[in-house]
Amino acid sequence: MNLIQQKLKEIGSDWELLVILAKRDISVRYKQTILGLSWAIVKPVATMLVFLFAYKQVAKIQDISGYPIQLVIFSGILFWNYFANSLQAISNSILVNSNLISKVYFPRLIICFSSIAVSLVDFLVGLAVYLILALSLHQDISGYIFLLPVALFITSLFALGFGLIFASFSVKYRDVQQIIPLIVQYGFFATPIVYTTKQLSEKSWFLWYNILNPLAGMVEMFRACLISQYDLLTAQNLSISVLASVLVFILGIIIFDKREDSFVDYL
Fold it and tell me: By its UniProt entry, which InterPro entries does this protein fall under (predicted)?
């Protein structure tokens, strides 16, 4: 725990650099784009429309586990886009900023932490779209929406932990970069993004599913914070997700710290 406190203290002491890098990433992301922040709206909405067509027109499914299909799908996509984009940004952050790292010393973790900024901005824009969608469907917003920052924090810890692990090894082993898109692609379907855990809860292997994929509990946590009277988040799901996020984050910090000194040799 002393290592975690030390690293977080280093980041806190250089918070101004963290803000500068975050602003730079946001500026670069939308610079010279015609739609700008609108891309944060287009992508999740387009994905939702594709699945709505598949569910309603092809499979003739009108709701998911008794909840409005539009809200279940869009809230899942909103969660997944934040996690997946954060994971990819963190994993690639050291290589993307190789010139900066090789020229001047500063806590390398700052680069990884600042890379979440773009994903956070996209999430906030998508959240506004979700609220408009819910109101247009005459659906109430969950009374637990004030806990959404907590769900976001837990997800961020998980993304940071895995992202730091991938970032640590991708500097020397560039093959690691090829693994991340596969995780994002297959993880989308392995996690209840366009379906719910209710459809899996009666399976004998459901507990192991939650242990092996803590993201299942996290996405249900997001839905509980957004969809009114959503009751599919269980204490078991929640505890597994929180524990996994903390453990993965700590492991990521430890691995990153051990490999940090060798970054310059391979950049």
Answer: ABC2_TM, ABC2_TM_bact-type, ABC_2_transport
> pTM above 0.90?
yes
Domain span at 75: 2-266
Per the CB < 8 A criterion, the answer to whether 97 and 110 are in contact is: no
Rounded to whole angstroms, how far apart are CA atoms 77 and 118? Answer: 16
Question: How many independent structural domains does the chain possess?
Answer: 1
How far apart are the C-alpha atoms of 86 and 218, rounded to whole Å? 15
Among residues 135, 126, 129, 137, the alpha carbon closest in space to that of 63 is found at 137
Per-residue DSSP letter, 68: E
Range among 69-83, 86-100, 187-201 rated most confident: 69-83
Q: Looking at 2-103, which runs of residues are DSSP E strands?
A: 63-64, 67-68
Residue 40: band (very low, low, confident or very high) from pLDDT cuts 50, 70, 90: confident
Burial degree of 208 (CB within 10 A; 0-12, 13-18, 19+)? exposed
Q: Which residue has better confidence, 173 or 102? A: 173
- Over residues 140-181, the pLDDT tens digits come to 999 999 999 999 999 999 999 999 999 999 988 888 888 999
Q: Could you tell me which of 199, 69, 194 has the C-alpha nearest to residue 134?
A: 69
